[in-house]
Amino acid sequence: VRALACAVFLVAIGSVGSLRAQTIFDDSFADGDRAATGAMDTNWWTSSSSAGIEASVGSLGLVTGTSGRGIHTVFPTQTLVNVGDKLTATYTFTTPATIGMSSSSFRVGIFDTLGRALDEDITASSSMPNAVYGLAGTADGLPGYMMDMDVNTGSAADLNFREHDATNLTPSGRLLATSTGFTSFTSGPDMGYMFAPSTSYTGSISVKLVSPTEIELTGMIDGQTYRITDDSFASASFGFLGFHANSNVFGSSGAAGDPDNGIDFTNISVVFTPAPPVQTVFDDSFADGDRAATGATDTDWWTSSSSAGIEASTGSLGLVTGSSGRGIHTVFPTQTLTEVGDKIVASYTFTTPATVGTNLSSAFRVGMFDTLGRSLDEDISASSSSPNAVYGLAGQADGLPGYMMDMDVNTGASADLNFREHDASDATPTGRLMATTSGFSSLGSGPDVGYSFAPNTVYEGTFSIELISATELAISGSLNGDSFSVIDDTFASASFGFFGFHANGSTFGSSNAAGDPDNGIDFSNIAVEVQLIQSGGIVTVNPSSFNVLHGTYASGGLSDLTASDNSDLSARRNSSDIQSRVTIEVEATSPTAFPTSMDFTLESSVFARSTVNQNLELFNYDTSSWELVDTRAAMRLIDSTVTVTPTGDLSRFVEPGTLAIEARVRYVSPAQRQSFSGNVDQMVWEIGN
Fold it and tell me: Which among 345, 277, 343, 275 is positioned nearest to 79, based on CA atoms?
């Protein structure tokens, strides 16, 4: 972001919406040409043999038959920079009449180009490897990944990911034509998928940055999906997509034009989905020493089972347990995961007391649930003898849909993380929620990691839920670096507005008396954030900061710029400036790097005795200069509104990476030293994405 000169008045305001997926190319071969002729087309090249490709209207053929061959495209390099950035290639193809049977024989891969000349037909074979792909002793291998698929191997058919990385293996100079030079990750489970003759299939491969050191790989073929994480990736940049089929896998002929010569692609696309901006739902560090929300990012905290289960002091919220099992919770505005990639993340930091129990399985619990609109924003009493139907109770009320992660407390090497689902459709709610595991269905335990809880020690944990497909939620949790994830493909709700904790009796602390330092764990911070993908359409973008560049700030603030309400931000000419001018700049964040439309509206007036000219400008990041989009005489005393709709490549107004957008209005009087003020009622963008 460009640094704005002079004083900047900066105020945080509501979210402007999230980022939307950006299509890099989407080729349906309507032109019948392997060269890019349409706006969303891409060029296609052979990867091993010049006979490996053919094109017709609506189809791109990978010609294999009796020969193993490949094709590829090169696209503008996309780099996964922010956690949550994702690149997805999707492809649809039709099989020929003849299909063979072979393991790991159909392959798709995505790689970093390393700036090499890959945008051309490439010849490579076992006898004549090509160093452009990487060759031992000659050139490093292209960093990236291959997913190989079994072809009609029966019930054992699975998906397997392999990594190509010159730092730990020997590149072969053949890339997708061989598995040599790749390091295999663990294969997916036996799926038993099949390829039938003359049938259409859809597949995908995606890479997603899930942490600064981890890339998640996801592959799909005909609805069967497999995911794995690479925690030692060599590159997060990708600009090469390719396919390869071994010989005698698809088709009986290797001749061009023969209908039984291989698979025919009808569509291939690559989409980059930027990580949506993080929006804070709440972030409570208990600085007020109150369990009630008093700060802007605080939330209210309630007891979940016993009124004696909570205490607050400056910088701390205590879960008072000791010899008693108790819980606390908060209720926040419901967040609904609607778009694939939407995610809600809770994080928490706590300190253990002097006394910590041992050999206590599933004794510390954290959970997130749908409120179902019930009155949960209050202290709640619930016990085995007096269950509370507000949580759900068999025969009275459905259970709150959601998830709990339970942690073992000092059980030794077997300590793990376990996820459970609360759902009235497949369990019997007990009216106690996290105070018991009854009423929950287990989704699976993680590996034995042997974590432990030491006395008087700070721990950090996370709990997240992400919509990873229209029918799947990924539930993830961590404790001091140990993490585990499961997938729920039968979830009851993707809405969440309740977050809570529970510790069983004799887990943390020796006393359950308020004020006793050994009465339970003390939280120093608890936060919930969401990342929501924008589903498209027009987004109203309000300024996030303003700057009076020329002139003197007089009155008003950021909130006065968002609506036509006769409440103005005003600045007057600086009497020491020989020029009669006032300039007001605003900055915001675009919901997309590639706007499909853009309107900018200015409503303003001047208080002046004579004519003042009004110039409206948008900052052009391509030229690093202000672009004049409207000029006219400013209205005196009475507001006037102007809306400009720039044309051409609108991405020039969006700063790459930060997505910053800037606008300014300049008021200039032809008469030197004329005293006047500029009064702005509204400055907003309407951006299509």
Answer: 275
